[in-house]
From TrEMBL:
HAMAP family, per the entry: G6PD
Entry-linked Gene3D superfamilies: Dihydrodipicolinate Reductase, domain 2, NAD(P)-binding Rossmann-like Domain
Entries under PROSITE patterns matching the protein: G6P_DEHYDROGENASE
Enzyme class of the recorded protein, top EC level: oxidoreductase
Keyword field contains Ribosomal protein: no
Residues bound to NADP(+): 49, 90-91, 143
Every Glucose-6-phosphate dehydrogenase NAD-binding domain range: 14-180
Name used for this protein in its record: Glucose-6-phosphate 1-dehydrogenase
Keyword terms, alphabetized: Carbohydrate metabolism, Glucose metabolism, NADP, Oxidoreductase
Amino acid sequence: MTDGDAHGAKDLLVVFGITGDLARKMTLRALYRLERRQLLDCRVIGVASTEMSTAQLVEHARTAVADSGETLDDAVFRRFADRLTYVHGDVLDDALYARIADEVGPGAKPLFYLEMPPALFGPIVEHLGAAGLLRDASVAVEKPFGHDLASARELNARLRALLDEDQLLRVDHFLGKEPVIELEYLRFANPALAGLWDRGSVSAVQITMAEDFGVEDRGKFYDAVGALRDVVQNHLLQVLALVAMEPPAGADADSLRDKKAELLKAVRAVDPAQCVRGQYDGYRQIPGVAHDSQTETFVALRLEIDNWRWAEVPFFLRAGKNMPVRATEVRLMLRRAPRLPFLPSPAQAERNQIVLRIDPDPGLRLQLVAQDGESWRPVHLDASFARDLGEPLEPYERLLHSALAGEHSLFTREDSVEESWRIVQPLIDAPPPLHSYQPGSLGPAEAQQLLHGHPGWHQPWTGSDGKQPGGPAGPGR
C-alpha cells in the first residue's frame, strides 16, 4: 500500500479506455460540461489501445460531445482540447506505463479512472504500482465490483494489496444523481418528512427502476449479467440504504458511508421464495443471447430490515427492461387513516404516499386525498427539482468533479459492496424460476403476489403535470 496523500485534490486525470463506449457516451461529455462551468482545472491524459494522435483524440472528443446532444461552444471546446493528451498501448505491456509515467511527470497527484472490464482492474493497478505511479494517486473503477460475494472479496483483496481504501473510488453513477443526493437532505432537514419516516407511519416501501427499452445490441454482455447484478445489487440497494439509514454523525465521507453500511448489515439476505424473475418474450432471439438463456430481464423481490426504525416494514424492489415507461422512483406507502364516523369509508381512499422520482425529471410528490362528493380522489402536491432548484450537475459531471476534488462521499466503500452481495447471494446460488412477460408490460403477473397483504405495485409517476394516475397497476399492466 502507498503512504502518499490519498485525500487531497488531484491535479491530473488519466482515463484508461478513452476511446470506449462509456467515454464516448458519458465521460467526454461530462468533462466538456465541467469545462463549460469552469470546474475543470487539470490535464486529461487519455489511454487506449487504438493507434491515434492527440489531434485525432481531440476530433474524437468533439464528435462524441456533439453526438451526445450537447451544444458545442467553440471557445469552451478549445479550452478543453488544450488539456488533452493521448497515450496508446496495451494495458498489459510495461512499456505503456513507462510512457504514462513520462507524461505524468514527477510530483503529480493523479486520478486514474479505469473505464475497462473488471478483469483488467487488478493487472492495471499492479502495473501502475510497479511503475511507481500510485503514490499520491487515487484509482476509480466502474461497476461491476465482482459478480458475487466471493469474487468481490477477491477483487478487493487484489486492489487493496496496493491501494488504501481511501485511494479506491468505486463508481456507481446512480450515486451522482441529484435526487439520490437530495435524499439525505429531504429526510433529515425537513421535520415534516422526518416525522413520517419510520414504521409508525410507513406500511411499505416500493423502489422501482423501469426501462422502456430492451437489451438491443448488448446481448452478449447482458446475458452474462442479468437485472439482479446489473442494477439491483448496486443501484437499488444503494438507494435503499439512503432511504432507510440513520442520520450521519458528521459531514465527512465516512460518516455517511458508515450509516449506509450499518443499514445494509441490518438487511436480511433475500429469501428466494420472496423473489420473482422474468424474461421478456423475444429476448432469446437477440444476437449474443443463448437460445435457452435463463438470464432475467426483470426481477422483483421483498426485503426486510432488522432494526428499530423499519421492523416489519417490507421493502419491495423491482427492475426490468422493455417496460411501458422509463422511470426510477422511491414510493413510501403510509398507513391508512382510522375509520371515523364523519368520513367516508377509509377503504375507499387511497393511502397517502411520498414519492421521490429519481429519473427522469427528478422531483418529489406528496399524494393526499380529498373528498369529491361521496367518494375520495387523490390530490398531488408536486415539486420539480430542475424547475425549483435549477439545472443540476449530471451524474458523471458530479462524480468526476468530486473525485478530482478529493471528496469521496459519493463513492461506494468496500463494506457496503460486500454487504450488498451478501443480501442477493441466495438468488445467485438458487435462482427462482423464470416467468415470461410481454414487452411493454410492467413485468410478469407473478410479481404482484410478492405484495400480498400490501398495496399493489403502483404505476410509476411519469411526467411533471401531476395528472399521472396514482393507483396500483394490475398484473402485467
